[in-house]
Amino acid sequence: MTRQQIQPPRGMNDVLPVHTPAWQQLEGMARALFSAYGYQEIRVPIVEYTALFKRSIGEYTDIVQKEMFTFEDPGGDSLTLRPEATAGIVRAMISNGLLHNQRHRVWCAGPMFRHEKPQRGRFRQFHQIDVEAFGYAGPDIDAEQIMLSARLLRRTGVRRLTLNLNSLGTAESRRGYRDKLVAYFGAHKSRLDADSLRRLEGNPLRILDSKNPDLQDLIAAAPLLTESLDEASRQHFDGVCRHLDAVGIDYVVNPRLVRGLDYYSHTVFEWLTTELGSQGAVCSGGRYDGLVTQLGGEPTPAVGWAMGQERIVELLRVQHGDPSAAAPDAYLVIAGAAAEAQGLMLAERLRDACPKLRLEVNCGGGSFKSQLKRADKSGARWAIILGDMETDRRVAGLKSLRVEAPQVEIGWDELPQELTKRLD
Ligand code: ATP
Ligand code: MG
């Protein structure tokens, strides 16, 4: 392999230290909010049996038909890298017997894999933050989850997002609509592309989700699902809307919104941006009451959403620039043989005594001058200076790097107290 050939797999990215602060902020905010809303973390495998995704996501989806990273393991089993989190989480709830007469609110975060054409905001390994609730049938939890997503998005600082909302109704109310759609698109077969023709047989609703620009007027004139909703579906949807109205969350009812995955029912929603090219969705979700039984569990209502971390981080970068990593509070300069013998020990003592202190130690030696340059570059507020003379006398110099102030000399035993005082 030549040097130039060493690249990550196509569509899979390294997140370098200069970029991780944005990720950490998003994940930290999400974690704090999930805990505040009573959601608990669940961690599930990154690979599952391929059959799980076929059964849950559906044979007629792009994901199952062309986007899965599937391989045979050494034992001959077909495994697939998870393209989304919901299937694995539902599998885990069933496998662990967590659904019988129980309610759960859970969250999960991590990498997902889809063999798509890589472009801005669309990758083959990407990351999602995901929430799911099991055992709640009413519109209140749908609304609560949307409120949670709204609060998280607001807290990150992303701007100019639009919430699109729709109802897919119950499976029964969709059946009648399905027939109407088959009749409609069937009458325009010559205009459909290969994907849509395939969907016409398997899952005509998915044609509405097509991104093909040539199909957009045909789709715009298709019959609306909203007109086929039964009374119960309508009431559920009105309930969601009322809760959102009550807390002042703006939304657009978009009767064309259908989700890419087959298992949704009732509420579906998407947070959209116009600032990432054609990758508009930053967070999508909805109710999927039928999925648990579809996977062999007992009937359990469920609702959830997933947020694309790459898209949020990219939007934040476009709108606010990259946040920088937290600089150390202090940088320990260690010059001379005696100082080197004692420097790490002093650093550990300071860490024992000041747990909040962010202290970067100059490892690897160097002159006073070059170490002070590194101290300055680190962004630290102070340099703690330890030469042989200081070491002999068990003192250290404390030099302010950001404001004009005389350097002071402080005994090792007094140093923790002095630093703590300055940190507050
Ligand atoms: P899209 O319409 O953009 O393909 P999707 O409907 O396939 O999105 P979901 O399966 O609902 O997306 O996944 C939830 C979120 O994950 C999306 O809203 C998006 O932010 C993000 N996402 C999906 N696919 C990718 C990808 N290939 N790369 C980066 N983020 C993605
Ligand atoms: Mg997709």
From TrEMBL:
The keyword ATP-binding applies. It comes from the Bacteria. It is found in: Cytoplasm. One of its GO terms (molecular function) is histidine-tRNA ligase activity. Its main location: cytoplasm. One of its GO terms (biological process) is histidyl-tRNA aminoacylation. Residues 23-328 form the Aminoacyl-transfer RNA synthetases class-II family profile domain. InterPro entries: aa-tRNA-synth_II (IPR006195), aa-tRNA-synth_II/BPL/LPL (IPR045864), Anticodon-bd (IPR004154), Anticodon-bd_dom_sf (IPR036621), His-tRNA-ligase (IPR015807), HisRS-like_core (IPR041715), HisRS/HisZ (IPR004516), HisRS_anticodon (IPR033656). It catalyses: tRNA(His) + L-histidine + ATP = L-histidyl-tRNA(His) + AMP + diphosphate + H(+). SUPFAM superfamilies: Class II aaRS ABD-related (SSF52954), Class II aaRS and biotin synthetases (SSF55681). PROSITE patterns: AA_TRNA_LIGASE_II. Its EC number is 6.1.1.21. Pfam families: HGTP_anticodon, tRNA-synt_His. L-histidine binds at residues 84-86, 114, 128, 132, 259, 263-264. It is an enzyme of class 6 (ligase). GO terms for cellular component: cytoplasm. PANTHER family: HISTIDINE--TRNA LIGASE, MITOCHONDRIAL-RELATED, HISTIDYL-TRNA SYNTHETASE. HAMAP family: His_tRNA_synth. Belongs to the class-II aminoacyl-tRNA synthetase family. Homodimer. This is Histidine--tRNA ligase.
